[in-house]
Amino acid sequence: MKIPKISTFTKNMFLRQYMPALIAALVYSVADMADALVVGNSMGTVGLAAIAFSIPIFMLFNVIMHSFGLGGSITFSSKMTEGKEKEAVSEFQGVLVTLLIIGAAIALLGNLFLDQILMLLGASKDYDTLFIAAGTYLRLVLTSAPIFFFDYSMGYFMRNDDMEKAASICSSIGSICDFSLNIVLVLFFGMGVKGAGLATVSGVVISSIFQIIFMYIENKRLKLFPLKPSFKSVFSSFKTGIASCVSYIYSFIFIWLGNNAMMRLAGEAGVAVFDVVQNMSYFMAYIFGAITMASQPIISTYEGECNYEECDKLQKNLIALSVITTAVLVTIIGGFSPFILRLFGIVERPTVIYGSFALRVFCVCILFAGLNIIYSNYYTSREIPFPAFLLSTLRGIAILLPVMLVCIFLGKEAFWFTYPVTEVLSFVIILFYLSRMEKNAKRVSKEKIYTTTLGGDTSQIGTAVGEIEEFCERWEASPKQMYYVQMTVEEMCSAIMSNGFKEADRGKCNIQLTLVKKAEQDFSLHIRDNAHTFNPFDMSTKALKELEDADSDFNALGMDIIKKKAKSFYYRRYQGFNTMVVRI
Prior knowledge:
The structure is a single chain. By secondary structure, this protein is mainly α. Helix content is 72%, strand content 6%. It has 20 helices and 5 strands. It has helices at 8-52, 55-81, 85-112, 114-121, 128-143, 145-159, 164-188, 192-218, 234-242, 247-305, 308-335, 337-343, 349-363, 366-381, 386-398, 400-410, 418-436, 459-474, 479-499, 550-565; strands at residues 449-454, 511-517, 523-529, 568-574, 577-583. A 5-stranded antiparallel sheet has the order 1-2-3-5-4, covered by helices on one side. Strand 2 and strand 3 form a beta hairpin. Helix 2 (55-81) runs antiparallel to helix 3. The radius of gyration is 27 Å and the shape is elongated.
């Protein structure tokens, strides 16, 4: 596959998102593994079992908060791309209020029926110490449901509102606090499972507080007040997001079956190795998740702008990045498998040999698992949820379960081939499905889209205006409409070149234009430039006396006409670039 060259805009936007997301992924993965080490080494089997009973509840939390968070943020991004800021903020508030209501209901019912929930999860009152410990930990988790939902959903929305660095800082602070408090409360104060629960909840609370602080410091579009929630798109947002989140339900089934199988096939050592392999799978998922977190806002934005060419180029580059990521992960996990096992406390030679074999077999699946994650994110970001749902179902149960049962039957060495066989078969099936699927589903036809990129040479504006005239004629625009479209492009590009750059930086100018013929008789114009913060719509004839540059005088007059004649216009500074949309 030839890797296409992406635009400067796409490259800078992705790197701006990817580095903070990667740092957050590393912090999250280390914090998760550190929790397991601290709890396992300090509290023994009772502490580990008590926390294990809460795994299904965390999976339920993940389904709810990630489905609403991911789906809601995609809706938010689409609304912002259309210039509908008030609607976008109202939809954000609607999702947040819905999550808080669901969280409050879970907290209330969880405390009322705690014993029944524990028994449903498998705990027994015959084991008093374990039952009490599990109840102590679970009560803290259930009571904190609204905080968990707020924290994780806010992370998605902040990344779609040009606050990716702030979101990563908040999550990193929360994870560091969780890890640090775990050590202090569990190891130094001997608070056991209560300390572990308080550490986890405190990390989420602190992360949420910093999210609110950053939201008001950054002063972007997201607002908690005035509270005017809209619930029109809440259900559709959930449907969009859940396609990528049902895997949490399947993960629980897999872990439950895996623990039982390894206990029977290889005893406690087998279960210990299985736990290490699972931790490496979470590490892998976090690293590939950084790629999806960085790319999702960009793909959603480009889809909203109908800039499909750049969207597809980015996807091919993400596939190439997945190959590089795989090489790094295989080197770390496969090359240092004995060290990783000893890090988790596995030191017996036979178990180290067995565990090293398991980890190296797991490495075979990494490339295919990464590609499955990338494809799932691509179609979810385009608001086409079924491919992601299909992949989650294939990887989580439809292929995983029968392959796992066969591998269990073949023995403890064969068990580890569950990972690569499942991922390879899922990848092959999804490629077959995508080859039969309409590739341009939910997209405007290419004939109705004009796109180009201008440099700092003003003569390029005339060339673009001439091509736009032909485009408008082809779609039978009225003479008046054609005039205003051409005028809008000419005036806005001229204003950007004249006012957005210093004379010495004019050669670095890049202006991305996308003109779309909408289903109605309207044309939608999307402009993105790499100038310093500059909003052409702020120019006004009222400021003519203060302007010395004659070009600026004419630009200001032109902006006034554009604002009067356009059906709608909108500006925002997004991902380090000026972004505008005008409907004519």
